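Justification of computing resources. Each target in the renewal requires a structure prediction run like the one illustrated here; the chain below, 190 residues long, is used simply to show the kind of job we budget for.
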Amino acid sequence: VTDSGGTEIGAGEIDFTGSQIDPRDAIITVTSGDPANGGFQVDLDFSENVTSFSSGTVSTIATAEIDGNAEGSLTAIAVTEQGAIELSYSNGETETLDRIAMTNFPEPQRLEQIGDGLFANRGDGTPRLSSSGEDGLGRLVSGQVEASNVDLSQEFGNLILVQRGFQASSQIISISNEMIEQLFAIRSQG
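Resulting structure tokens:
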């Protein structure tokens, strides 16, 4: 077996009894690199639909049908609405991994920020793990930045009301102060 550059990446021998393959030699394992570090291992199974005809001491096998995938590299990572991590490859294949857990804290006000988006739970009760959109939790959306949940026009209106209330309270205090001064002035004259 050779790669696209013509380098041999595996070899094996198939024996035939008559025109049928010997079952002990039906599977050849081809390994390229270390499978744990990005290499691969493939078992070539010649147990079905392989026949022999005599053409000398060396023969070549060509595939009539391929049921695997072409080599592909990772092109995109996304998160589904259910919170699953989905990997897309250049050969058109996709792979769905585990889901991202979301946590519901019984006392979210007792979370303490410890830096860089990390929080410590200082509250009582056990946090509950769920998936995206389950049990009243929010949902994960891939490639999105959460918008502010503050209605700016409403908050500006509230700010104006508070400011007017502060001004009115300030005037009441000023008028009360003037009335007390006048009262002391009348009392001291009498």
